[in-house]
Amino acid sequence: MRGTGLAAVPFLLVRHELRLWASLWLWAARRTHDPAAGGAVFGYARGQGAMMGGVAFVCVVESVMMSVLLRDWPAVHHVVLVLDVYTVVIVIGLHAASVVRPHVLDPDAGTLRIRRALHVDLRIPLERIASVRHELRTTHEPREGELDLAVGSQTSVTVELAEPVTHVSFFGRRREVRVVRCHADDPGSLVRAVERARAGDAVP
Fold first, then answer.
1. Could you identify which of 46, 52, 88, 160 might form a hypothetical disulfide with 185, taking C-beta atoms 3.0 to 4.6 angstroms apart as the criterion?
2. Helical H segments across 44-136, by residue range
3. How far apart (Å, rounded) are the C-alpha atoms in residues 37 and 25?
């Protein structure tokens, strides 16, 4: 289906930047975004921490090198420095967004909320889940009706649905999905918690 029109793109980009800064603030305050009062949260950012740290380090090294190369052109140097510093902020902000926006299992609302940083926030009704299992995958081929949310190039939890749910992309494109693969730092705990919630048992 068609996504958001071009007129809405600037609004989406500005909203993305604001959420990025909000994520940095939440991370510094050791808080999570929109947690469920009676729900359980499951992080997934541990698998990408080293990679994101490496990217940030490379950006810092590049900034230093560019400062040396452009020292005789102050105006260009200042512009490039601002862009380089902001690139580092974006990298750190994306990791912060992953930390403060964990997966949320809310038995009271009857939903499993699968998230990935600022870009995916998918609510799956528990009654639509046909099965959930711990399944480690390191390769993912795009397929119709499947949503792969890899972290560090891997997924560790597979959720199969009896009825599809609608996934809305960053730019508003909507599509129906019946299989959702995501990553969790402790996939076994997430799988067990979902199974308990589906059975009507209390989630620890």
1. 46
2. 49-69, 74-100
3. 21
